[in-house]
Amino acid sequence: MQKHSRRLLRGIGLVCALALGATACGGSGDEGSGPKTVSESDVRAALDKGGTITVWAWEPTLEQVAADFEKEHPKVEVNLVNAGTNNDQYKALQNAISAKKGVPDVAQVEYYAMGQYALTEQLTDLTGFGADKLADRFSPGPWNGVKAGGEGIYGLPMDSGPMALFYNKKVFDKHGIEVPATWDEYVEAARALKKADPKAYITNDAGDAGFTTSLLWQAGSRPYRVDGTKVGIDFSDRGAKAYTDTWQKLLDEKLVAPVTSWSDEWYKGLGDGTIATLAIGAWMPANLASGVKDAAGDWRVAPLPQWQAGGTASAENGGSALTLPELGGNEALAYAFVEYANAGKGVDTRVKGGAFPATTAQLNSEEFRNTEFPYFGGQQANKVFAESAANVADDWSYLPYQVYANSIFNDTVGKAYVSDTTLAEGLESWRKASVDYGNEQGFTVEK
């Protein structure tokens, strides 16, 4: 982050929480002092001395990682707390920061939310810890995510969500439907499925900000431009038009189930074949295996359909990092845990527990790629996921107040799912509302 941006933010009194409902900002660094410096010897000394660190995270594989870390460093205690998933944790974290009390030493933060915390100086820049030397260990999308549009490094990538097409092979085979290689073919497959079985849908979509931005990313759209407090928002490029034109056909022809993801109805549809595909992140297999057990063997994985025939473009859908909040304590010890979990021995532990890695060593290993998934009929699905990860463009940016923007998605773009409003009109409404909010918070926002 540039020094002039830091001064501007403090001068205008930007609301730190933005969408999170807080009224005060944390930040302990001196004006223009640059990133803190913590050497390897400092980290070793902290491990030798020991102590307790509190980690706020909802990722289940961290339980074993914490236990292994404690075993390797007997003087260290890791207090792992599930303060809620994404937005619930962000609210709790912001409340702690505002009160300057109870702030964890380590916090899980999703990539889309990192810019908001980084710009308002609520996360420690890890450049001074030597995190920049770890860049080549991570795939491009997640590494770009922890840079949060600025010059610093505000966390280490924990997992990633390169997208793929999960499809019900049993349903496709029954109706003679080929796996679509392009989104145009996807629309045709949707029509064929609906004709063969009026109760079936190619997928579900009731309006989801994360899904929409992921498809825009893959289509080559770059709606957000961020330079400190200068922000641009524009949904009129070629990629955005490709997305809206294609997805509008699916909505107009009622080819997608108006079902909210993660609902009971959604799980039922995935199980009984009435929802036939999901374009989603590579972290999905464990959720299918646990939530749609009766459909084991029916599903397979394929590359994401392309906007242009012969393309290979992908995008991230989900994923998060472990960060060090500025007001947390035990920084050397906290960083030691984060590096262990996300760039050290903890990565293999998490992968064995079902997490999808952000690290190239695991993504490129034969053991990882050749893993057979019984749920997918023995398919080596990681080969598809790893290829997708390598094809994610690393020039995507989120808004520094993306959490707020996502919170108003259903009030804007969401109208296209329940009225005569088109997706293009919905995106324009989302743009205007996001511009107005950003300007109100002290950003300079333009189209």
From TrEMBL:
Q: May I ask which residue range the UniProt record assigns to the signal sequence?
A: 1-24
Which key words tag this protein in UniProt? Signal, Transport
* InterPro entries per UniProt: Bact_solute-bd_prot1 (IPR050490), SBP (IPR006059), SBP_1_CS (IPR006061)
Query: Which Pfam families does the annotation name?
Result: SBP_bac_1
Biological processes, Gene Ontology terms? transmembrane transport
**Is the Transferase keyword given for this protein?**
no
Domain of life according to the entry: Bacteria
Please state which protein family the record places this protein in. Answer: Belongs to the bacterial solute-binding protein 1 family.
Put simply, this protein is called Sugar ABC transporter substrate-binding protein
